[in-house]
Amino acid sequence: MIEAQDLAIHMDGRRLVSGVSFTVDPGRVLALAGESGIGKSLVAAALVGMLPGGAQRGGTLFLDGQVMTDACLRAVRGRRIALAPQPLSSLDPSARVDDQFRWAARRAGLPRMARKAAAAASLARLGLAAETCDLYPHHLSGGMARRVLVGIATVGRPQVLIVDEPTSGLDGASIALVAGDLRRLASDGCAVIVITHDLVFASRVADAVAVLSPGGFAAPMPASAFTSDGADIPDAHARRLWRATPANGMTVDA
């Protein structure tokens, strides 16, 4: 279980994010949604102790009830908690997928003899052929690259997975595959946090949806509320965002 209490992020004397509080239990998916540039990726970085230089985290993070300092997060990153980053450039263009899985398995503390099998198992969980390991990143489609990033992050079977903008640049078919991947990982007992600007995707993949806005943080709401005209969405800003999506006619509330 991962829990955030009043998480805040400051840089150069400015508060960039504040009031973020949530709990994600094993087997559950939380989507953290909001407009581009609102600070969602900063929250993802804070959850794994990877904030950029000059940024500071406030509030309290817990992993299985233990308070997590940045030093603690560094110690468990890639092992108990992992991040699948947004940029496809996070994959090393000069290394085969197999090598990148083995590096991640080593960071996760897996013994040398177990790393190849762990990579194969991770690919299998995502429905990717074992031959994917022989490819270089430039051989991968956007959808495959996204799924490989998730596979690399989960090769050590972390308790918590944070996925940053997993649908960016993908077509509908690839988005559906990614959604299935994340739900399967949750079914296997992982606590999953999805960072996304896409509320429609959030409503389909998550059990609960929280929204960052210029005015603050809307606590997690049932994903089932994000249907039809959004009348059941309790937060006004989240409701406006939902109604403004292309799938809902891009309605702008007065």
Automatic annotation (TrEMBL):
Gene3D superfamilies: P-loop containing nucleotide triphosphate hydrolases. InterPro entries: AAA+_ATPase (IPR003593), ABC_Ni/Peptide_Import (IPR050388), ABC_transporter-like_ATP-bd (IPR003439), ABC_transporter-like_CS (IPR017871), P-loop_NTPase (IPR027417). Residues 2-239 form the ABC transporter domain. SUPFAM superfamilies: P-loop containing nucleoside triphosphate hydrolases. It is found in: Cell inner membrane. One of its GO terms (cellular component) is plasma membrane. PANTHER family: NICKEL ABC TRANSPORTER, ATP-BINDING PROTEIN, OLIGOPEPTIDE TRANSPORT ATP-BINDING PROTEIN APPD. This is Nickel import system ATP-binding protein NikD. It comes from Aureimonas altamirensis.
